[in-house]
Amino acid sequence: MTLEDYLAQDAAAYPDKTAVVCGEQSYTYAQLWQEVQQRAADYPGGKVIPFRSSQTVDFIITYLAIHLAGSVAAPLEKDIPDKPFEEIARRLSSNTVPEGTADVLYTTGTTGKSKGVMISHRTIVADAENLIAGQGFSHDLVFVIHGPLNHIGSLSKIYPIILLGGTLRILDGLRDADAFFEAFREPGKYATFFVPANIRFLLSFDAQRFAALADRLDFVESGGAPLSHADMLRLCEILPNTRLYNTYASTETGIIATYNYNDGRCLGGCLGRPMPHSRIIITPEGMISCQGDTLMSGYIGDPELTATVLRDDTVYMSDYGQIDEEGMLHIGGRESEVINVGGYKVAPTEVEDVAMSIEGIQDCICISADHRIMGKAVKLLVVLKEGAVFDKRTIARYIAARLEPYKVPQLYEQVDTIARTYNGKLDRKHYQ
Length: 432
Fold this sequence. Notes:
single chain, alpha/beta, 14-stranded mixed beta sheet, 24 strands
C-alpha cells in the first residue's frame, strides 16, 4: 500500500474527522481525499515534478496528488530563486528513477553539495510504521508541524498520521511564538518535532509557557542535530510526564532509531534501539551503517556518488557510534567534523554539550582553528545570556573538570550569534 491508499481508507472510515488544519483552513479526511483526487488530474504520470514547498494545506494536497498521478514529488525550498529552480527541473527531467520511487528529497548540503535523494513508496510506509512502533503515534493524536515540509524531519510526520487517521496542524515556523502555543489551546493529545535550536529558543525565552503544555504533550521528538544534555535534563524537568525522544534519522537512511530520554536516566548521546524496519551495524572503523526498508534508493542522476554511500543494501554513514549492552545506539560525532589535535580526535559535539550546561552560555559552537605548534586547536565560540560575564578561565576550568585534557578548548571567543542553517543546524562550514 502507498500513503495515498491509506488516505483513501481514512476518507472511507473517518470521513468527517479533521485531517489537517492550517490557520483558518481545515479539511476533513473526505475533503482532503477529494482535493487530492482532483489535483492529481492536473499532473502527468511518470514524471519527476519539482515544486516549491510551503507550510500550507496546499503543499499536502500537491504532494499527495503527484503521487496519486503516478509521478514523483520533488519538493524544493520555498524561497529558491527561479534560476536554480529551473536548473533543478531541467536535471530532473533528464534522469530516470527506479520503479516505485515516490520522492526526490534534497539534503541541506551542510556537509557538502546538496544531493537529490530518491525515496520509495515502500520506504515511506516503513518510516511510518517505525514511528508508530517507536513513538506511539495514535489515531487520536494531533501532530503540530512547524518545520520545513521539504525535509525528512517534518515531512516524515505526515506518514504515520495518515496511516492512522490522526490530525496534522501546520504552522509556518516558530517565528510567531504566540501562534505556536495557540496551536495547543484546545484540549487533546498533542505531539511535535523540534530541531535542537528551537528547543533551546523555547527553553531560553518561553520555558514557562512550554511547561504549561505538560498535560497535553503526549510526546516531543528532536532530531537533525545533537541535543545538548543540559537541554535534555531541562525538558525532563518541565515536562515530567511527556515522552521525550531523541531520534537517529537522515534523508538517506530514513527513520532508524529513537530513545525516550525521559526514562529516569536521561542518557546523553543515546539514540535508542533500531525500530522494526531497521538495523544498525558498527563498522570496524567505528562508523554507523544502516540496513532495512527505510533506506534511500540512491542519489538521482549520480550512481557513482550513490556507490560511495549505498552498497549491498547498506547505507554507510559518516557518524561515529557504538552499541551498548542494551542494544542502544550512542553517537560520537561526524567524521568530517572531528578535530585532530596532536593525534587525538575531538568530537566538537561533546565539547558543545558540556559548554551548554554552563549557566551563562546561551549558545555555542566548537570549531577547529590553526595553531602554530599543534597545527590544529579546539576553539569555542560562545553567545552569553543577558547579564553574563565572559570569563575564559572559568569556562575552561568547567570543561576541564568534565572532559579529558585534550578535549578542552585552547581558544575562546565571545560572539553575538552562532551561524546556523535555515533549519537550525550548526553551520560549521561558515567558520572554515
